């Protein structure tokens, strides 16, 4: 009996230690900062100052009313997407946020920091353009949904989005009390009901990262008639933007 109690204690302490490790290292599982890359063409860098941090934005300048603001995935170098969006939206100015720690931005990423930076960027864009479209991919969908809920925008496009990182984490780590441990929760289901902008949700048919139910659960929380859900056949989480007709759907 003593031996069983000792083993149970060891298992409990081991489990608590694992929970502690996951708590203190959790952001290394959520954010994968990418370095700055060289680029050519119509792109330039805009530097924003937020909380004494330099936040970089890749920009394709265009005069006029229309602008597109892009929030990328957790391991994305957004400069690699700039040319594709420039070709797909030739009449739009394009702004692509480099999260803190990514692409030359200083500081460290967190949910609160990303939301602050996104708001500063949106305010700047709206001072230059009257019609703003937000695009959020994967992790960035959580940034875009909240931004659209709190600020009027023309349109919202979500690519491989989720209802909340909490639910994604529960599926990936079913043995952990994820709901208690997570600092950065990106609960898009909390914000989606307040979105009034016409919204398109693009779901990859073979998404191996975000389960279909996570995307469908998000879709169900939008007000009636606001959001449409389209499945991109044959696409997985990372290949979706290379699928035929994806940019056409977004336009």
Q: Can you offer a commentary on this structure?
A:
This protein has helices at 2-25, 27-30, 79-88, 111-128, 139-150, 165-172, 178-181, 188-191, 212-221, 246-250; strands at 43-50, 53-60, 66-71, 93-97, 131-137, 155-159, 198-204, 227-232. It is of the alpha/beta class and 251 residues long. The model has no long low-confidence stretch (mean pLDDT 92). Helix 4 (111-128) crosses helix 5 (139-150). The N and C termini lie far apart (68 Å).
The computed structural class is alpha/beta
Radius of gyration: 20 Å
Q: Sheet with the most strands? A: 8 strands, mixed
List the total number of helices. Answer: 10
Would you identify the regions where 5 or more consecutive residues have pLDDT less than 50? none
What is the CA-CA span between the terminal residues? Answer: 68 Å
List keywords for this structure.
alpha/beta; 251 residues; eight-stranded mixed beta sheet
SSE arrangement:
Elements: H1 2-25, H2 27-30, E1 43-50, E2 53-60, E3 66-71, H3 79-88, E4 93-97, H4 111-128, E5 131-137, H5 139-150, E6 155-159, H6 165-172, H7 178-181, H8 188-191, E7 198-204, H9 212-221, E8 227-232, H10 246-250
Parallel strand pairs: 3-4, 3-5, 5-6, 6-7, 7-8
Antiparallel strand pairs: 1-2, 2-4
